[in-house]
Specification:
The complex is a heterodimer of chains A (327) and B (694).
Chain A (H helix, E strand, L loop, with lengths): L1 H18 L19 E4 L5 E4 L6 E3 L2 H9 L6 E2 L2 H7 L10 E2 L8 H7 L3 E5 L4 H10 L2 E4 L7 H16 L2 H24 L6 E10 L2 E6 L5 H8 L3 E2 L27 E5 L18 H5 L1 H4 L3 E4 L9 H15 L2
Parallel strand pairs in A: 3-4, 3-6, 4-5, 6-7, 8-10, 8-11, 11-12
Antiparallel strand pairs in A: 1-2, 8-9
Helix pairs in contact in A: 6-7, 7-11
Chain B lengths: L22 H24 L8 H8 L5 H36 L11 H14 L6 H23 L5 H25 L5 H7 L9 H27 L3 H6 L4 H23 L5 H15 L6 H26 L2 H6 L2 H19 L17 H24 L7 H8 L5 H35 L11 H15 L5 H23 L6 H26 L4 H8 L8 H20 L1 H9 L2 H5 L4 H23 L5 H13 L3 H25 L8 H21 L1
Classes of the chains: A alpha/beta (327), B mainly alpha (694).
Amino acid sequence: MRRLLLTAAATTAAALTLAACGTTEPAADKTEKKASEAITLKDGKGTEVKLDGPATKVVATEWNVVESLVSLGVDPVGVADVKGYKTWDSAVPLKNEPKDIGTRGEPSMDTVASLAPDLIVATTDLTPAAVKQLREVAPVIEVQSADGAGQIDRMLANVDLIAKATGTTDKAKSLRDGFEAKVAEGKKALADAGMAGKGIAFADGYVASNQVSIRPYTATSLIGEVNEAVGLKNAWTVKGDEAYGLGATDVEGLTKLPGDTQFAYIGNDDDPSATPFTGELAKNPVWKSLPFVKAGDVHRLDDGIWMFGGPGSMEAYIDAVVGALTK
Amino acid sequence: MAVTTTEPATEPTAARPSTVPSSRSGAAAVTAGIVLLVAVLAVVDITQGTAAVGPSEVLEALTGRADPDDASVVVASRLPRMTAGLLVGAVLGMAGAVLQAVSRNVLASPDTLAVNAGSYLALGLAGATGVSLPMLASSGIAFVGGLAAAAVVLGLSGLGTGTVRLVLAGTALMLGLHSMTQALLLLFPEQTKGLYEWNQGSIAQNGFDGVLQMLPIALVGLIGLLLTARRVDALALGDDAARGLGVPVRATRLTVVVLAALLSAAAVTLAGPIGFVGLCAPALVRPLARRFRGFSRSRTAMPAAALTGAALVLGSDVLLRALIADDRSVAVPTGVVTSLVGAVFLVAMALRVRDTAGAGAPDRLRIPSRAVFLATVAVLVVVLVGLVIAAVLVGDSKLLLGDVVNWAQGRAGRTVSFVLDTRVPRVLAALGAGAALALAGTLVQAVTRNPLAEPNVLGVTGGGALGAVILVTTVPAAGTWGVAGAAFAGSAVTAVLVFGLAARGGFRQNRLVLVGIGVASGTAALISLLIVLTDPFNANKALTWLSGSTYGRTMPDVVPVALALLVGIGVAVARRTELDLISLDEDTPRLLGLRLAPGRLGFLVLSVVLSATAVACAGTIGFVGLVAPHAARALVGRRHARVVPVAVLLGATLVCAADLLGRTVIAPAQLGAGLMTAVIGTPYFLYLLVRSRR
């Protein structure tokens, strides 16, 4: 028996070895050259990144940078968790069919390398070890995902940074102008409807078993800043985390919101556990006793607005929230 | 073996001198005390929460004078939470008590018999499909999962064939199932977002519905267990004695385990896996049985354990909400606190327990011939070489050997050289970590003569992970070497703690493993706490690291583990005779004039170095140290001259195969090698158990 095993193993190894001879890629010839204008920029971590020219084959490891790329008219060749992006960010849909490079936390080095990109856009959430390896494939710019001290400024600066690397600064300018115009438009519409200065509480929530956890988007979150920009007031008193401005509370915690609060949330039809406000909470006495629930001031905004996205998602958010509040 | 040969959980009444004074009234008084404690904790729990509803509002609400909003908070949020705490604690305490009684094992509990892990995986699978199920359906799924896990454990270990197997199979299956659940969490982060926090166990409730639906199930289980109490007492006398008394041993065990699984499933559905209550509550009641005769019968000891369990869960919840500001405490699951409390408690218990364990009988294994040993080594080498070739060539981009030759000569094209630059270190990291963990496991098992002992069980890898996570969360820009250093520091501190606490009596067996399990659970709970408090929305980062991943490894990362491995193998080969003697029994080495404690300490230090470097290199890979030495002994007998090389080869093969599968099966998404090791290791380990039963 053991001898048989031994022979089998040896044969398999030999067969493998024979079958695996040859190469998939010819030996390097070192003749590649690019003569276009070189670009040097500083990324979100202050690392200096040199590019031979505006990047066109771009891989992105996080959804917010994917969205910025698409908005800038650059279709990424590789995107982490394509299915997830399509589920959660339909405000700025992908225009091509990018290759899935794996999860957002651990993109596959092999796949990224096989795409032979000329730029990789990562975020500061990716582990340094992975970034270090990605730099072997192509220049990497690390974008700072969130900044509690100024989310909108950070978002627009990120777009500018990516635009610089992809030679689309004109488009970035028009994105910025479009976003600012949308903010002004939303602010005017809300003021006209007499909603200026109204308190708003934006949240999302999750259900597991018989428990509901609610995640408040506080004043220092991106959505929170956009709310303030269109003339609303954040009603949350919960403290958020430093980077994203996200807090944590439960149904009880909602009783601390003022009675005239407008409550807004984004769920997802493809993800039932992410929509507790219509499902599990509908029968909850605490939820039902909340003044804004009684008054019908609970608004479900459109699916597919990525709460941590770029100008595209935020414009869609402004449309949605203004539409809901002025109805 | 010895872990399980401790005194019976429930002591036979006949063994007690009847001179214990006023036992019945004493027991009643103690029971009344616990009831009072539970009541006080329950009342305090109702006054805590995120809404501004304090004691006075609660009082008004209870007397019907509060405004309706406050009343709804009390009725729909506070009372259900309190009730859930009571129910979950009671149910787990009772399940633990009865499981310990029938298995005559102080370490048996819903956690260690994989019941909780099975329920949790079943719910995780349901969650990953994205289907939102009604409460009763999910509890059904949890029950099926828990019962299936229990059935596997009991089926493989064999009813009534000894308790070692029971706990061995249970622990092994628990590790495997947990890894699979973790894989689900990593693969479906959106669908299972709630599940991760819930993983730690939280008694918060959305209204009374859940509690009301679980109540009948819990009652069926509790009453059923009380009805079997007399038979369980008989089992405590030993299988033969019980049979002599006309008690159907197998049927009783089966009934009790099914009922305990039912109870655990109810608890898991309601609150997630709340760790350690099933282990602690009966252990707290046990000393009472020595003092008061009233508690020496299951019929009284089980309700006492249930009450104690309720006190543990509610007390943890109260403590949590009192210590951490309201909004943050929402994010910290109660189960983390019970685990921390339980860990400290377990260590304290381990230090006090009378270590009466003698040497267990060595596994009865045939002694294979030299030819068999050589053939085994040859086959393993061939398999390993084949695996390494496959691991280097196969991945998202398939390569051929010519590419590798080009790469080795520095002539490869851009894509190939990049792929190999990242892939080769990963393969080497997997090989090194696997071999080092296997060797560490071999040494620890030899020294402690304990089949459950391995770096993971002893908390050494957990400590390493804790050190790494502390660094990752406090210094986000920490480099690979920083993380490696932190992991090493963590492992060293944990090892000093565990071995230091267990040093009394020269590293006797039970104490070491008990302290180790306690510390391991403590580190796991601390890691969860740390992630939830500092970076709640990046759990993925830490999870990824904890799952034992070779992701992002570079050549320098492999150096420490390679060095440790060289030293380790050298020492193990040079002192192989000493290892043989130490692993035999307590007396032989003494007769031969060997001083036990220093020798053991040396081997333990070596195994700590080995596992710390492995953790730094590839994260927490939990199964290899347990499986590889067992498999090696089963293949080539007990002599360490043979066991060491075979175990090392097996470890390297296992982790290398796991890494290869993890990278390719669901590519481009990746699974950590640790998860895959468990997925491969669990069935193999269970197969070993089945085979050795004959």
